[in-house]
Amino acid sequence: MITVKSAEQIELMRRANQIVRDTLELLREHTKPGVSTLTLDKLAYEYILSQNAKPSFLHYNGFPASICVSVDCEVVHGIPSKRKILQEGQIVSYDCGAIYKGWQGDAARTVAVGLISPECQKLIDVTEQCFFKGVQSIVPGQTRLGDLGHVIQTHAESFGYGVVRELVGHGIGREMHEDPEVPNFGIPGHGMRLSAGMTIAIEPMITMGTERVDWMNDGWTVKTRDRKPAAHYENTVAITENGVEILSL
Ligand code: MG
Ligand code: MG
């Protein structure tokens, strides 16, 4: 079921998403070689609580932390740990969610640890471009999910990158994951239309090699099957009468 949000509800989601945005910025500032990912998780937890919000990932289906931290070939859902220490040259994806007055925010960023290769920087840049090209293509009431997915997919594949098929974006509101699914691939003219009042998380997950992924035995971490790097970039957006508002920027 698709839920349509009022202006007042979107205002609360705006605040939830600002908290997520600021948490991700804090994580970016603290990203450097030698930092334990558990330290970063604690930082995020404390910041979100200080903003009178709750970390939505903590205990979500049993997830043990406030953020997902996915390094290099880890695509998403990596678990912070005191033994998982950031190292120079890695790329690290932070995914974060917060609940403010019952409303959800969800966003992700991929960040360089120290100096990274030009190839990894390009992967990060193109993944962000995929998001923005997708958003810019949305005409409220006209664009369909297949059109949006096609724009994202076409941009990523023009660089020879893979688009993960088994994980997709989603509607968001009172629940973190609501209908509809928002794939990063698609066929133009297919799927439902994006119309005013819908709030969705658009989150390209782009790989340097194969789009195939493996689920790890920890029950969470998703890695690329060829173990080449992956990047993730996500924002929650609101479709309005006039266009698209990115709530987590
Ligand atoms: Mg997310
Ligand atoms: Mg999401």
What's a concise summary of this model?
With 249 residues, the chain is an alpha+beta fold. Helix content is 28%, strand content 26%.
Describe this structure in words.
By secondary structure, the protein is of the alpha+beta class. The chain is built from four helices and 15 strands. The strands form four sheets. Strands 8-7-9-14-15 form a five-stranded antiparallel beta sheet. Strands 1, 2, 4 and 5 form a four-stranded antiparallel beta sheet that branches. A hairpin with a 6-residue loop joins strand 7 and strand 8. Helix 1 packs antiparallel against helix 2 and helix 3 packs antiparallel against helix 4. The relative contact order is 0.19. The mean pLDDT is 98. The protein binds magnesium ion (2 copies). One magnesium ion binds next to loops.
Features:
249 residues, four-stranded antiparallel beta sheet, five-stranded antiparallel beta sheet, 4 helices
How are the secondary structure elements laid out?
Blueprint: H1 7-29, H2 37-50, E1 54-55, E2 67-71, E3 74-76, E4 91-100, E5 103-112, H3 118-136, H4 145-157, E6 162-163, E7 169-171, E8 178-182, E9 199-202, E10 205-207, E11 213-215, E12 222-224, E13 230-232, E14 235-239, E15 244-246
Antiparallel strand pairs: 1-4, 2-4, 3-12, 4-5, 6-10, 7-8, 7-9, 9-14, 10-13, 11-12, 14-15
The site of one magnesium ion has 6 residues, from strand 4 and strand 5.
